[in-house]
């Protein structure tokens, strides 16, 4: 990692930001995340590039923090910019404005770029996608209720879990390692099967693009639908 020193400590030393250098270098080395956003969404001279605004948010998510204010301690810190391989650190307000702009007419395009970066990270880093004992790479899909009951966010509603109000996104994981290769955001009240076929079809295509031929799809009874069996037979 260029410009980043790492030292072993004596005893237990905990820090919530020590791993962001790994995040920054992984994004820089194995993906086009920063350059793609900067190139796609042009800005005026002297303004912070799109990739520089969004990269710190990815690092913040990697530390388990999704709120904008989590970036406040990083604002203006040269070491953060160096660790994340960006030129300048944007403020939380700038980040929020940029995400609002993406949501207003550019959401699908932005999500495609994020998805491509996720696949590139796995592919270019040479990460293993290990098969199970049958030789198939397992593809596990399910909805995961997210508790947002104390908020007024759009789409928050009763999930299938008792007394849990929030969202019910679907996630698809691949291999013994459990790489998350597909996800679909959903309101809490939406049945898991709605839209699941398209998600599974896309996940199979993702694995094919990474050289995986034998796929074993594992789902629970909520996905017992003819359209799911159809894509399994077509991709057997």
What does this structure look like?
With 236 residues, this protein is an alpha+beta fold. The chain has 2 domains: 102 residues, no CATH class; 106 residues, Nucleotidyltransferase, domain 5, CATH 3.30.420. Helix 1 crosses helix 3 and helix 2 packs antiparallel against helix 3. The mean pLDDT is 90.
In short:
The protein is of the alpha+beta class and 236 residues long. It has 2 domains: 20-121, no CATH class; 129-234, Nucleotidyltransferase, domain 5 (2-Layer Sandwich). The chain has helices at 20-30, 33-40, 50-62, 78-84, 92-103, 107-124, 196-209, 226-234; strands spanning 137-143, 146-147, 157-158, 165-167, 170-174, 179-184, 215-218.
Taken as a percent bin, the fraction of beta residues is: 5-15%
Q: In DSSP terms, counting alpha (H) and pi (I) runs of 4 or more, how many helices? A: 8
Q: Which CATH top level class of the largest domain fits?
A: Alpha Beta
Task: Going across the biggest sheet, name each strand in turn.
Answer: 6-5-1-7
Report the C-alpha radius of gyration, rounded.
20 Å
Task: Please state the average pLDDT score.
Answer: 90
Following the backbone from N to C, one meets helices and strands in this order, namely HHHHHHEEEEEEHEH
The largest β sheet comes out as: 4 strands, mixed
Secondary-structure topology with pairs:
Elements: H1 20-30, H2 33-40, H3 50-62, H4 78-84, H5 92-103, H6 107-124, E1 137-143, E2 146-147, E3 157-158, E4 165-167, E5 170-174, E6 179-184, H7 196-209, E7 215-218, H8 226-234
Parallel strand pairs: 1-7
Antiparallel strand pairs: 1-5, 2-4, 3-4, 5-6
Helix pairs in contact: 1-3, 1-4, 2-3, 3-5
């Amino acid at each position: 990692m260029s410009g980043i020193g790492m030292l072993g400590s004596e005893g237990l030393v905990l820090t919530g930001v020590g791993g962001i250098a790994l995040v920054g270098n992984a994004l820089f080395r194995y993906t086009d995340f920063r350059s793609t956003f900067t190139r796609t969404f042009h800005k005026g001279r002297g303004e912070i590039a799109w990739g520089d605004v969004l990269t710190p948010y990815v690092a913040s998510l990697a530390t388990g923090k999704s709120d904008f204010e989590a970036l406040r301690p990083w604002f203006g810190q040269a070491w953060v910019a160096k660790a994340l391989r960006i030129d300048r650190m944007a403020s939380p307000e700038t980040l929020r404005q940029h995400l609002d702009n993406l949501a207003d007419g550019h959401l699908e395009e932005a999500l495609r770029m994020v998805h491509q970066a996720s696949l590139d990270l796995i592919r270019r880093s040479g990460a293993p996608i290990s098969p199970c004992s049958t030789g198939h790479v397992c593809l596990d899909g399910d909805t995961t209720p997210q508790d947002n009951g104390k908020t007024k966010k759009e789409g928050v509603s009763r999930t299938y879990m008792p007394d849990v109000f929030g969202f019910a996104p679907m996630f698809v994981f691949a291999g013994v390692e459990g790489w998350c290769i597909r996800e679909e955001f959903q309101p809490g009240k939406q049945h898991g099967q709605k839209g699941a076929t398209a998600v599974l079809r896309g996940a199979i295509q993702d694995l094919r693009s990474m050289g995986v031929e034998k796929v074993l799809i594992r789902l629970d009874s909520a996905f017992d639908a003819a359209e799911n069996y159809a894509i399994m037979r077509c991709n057997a």
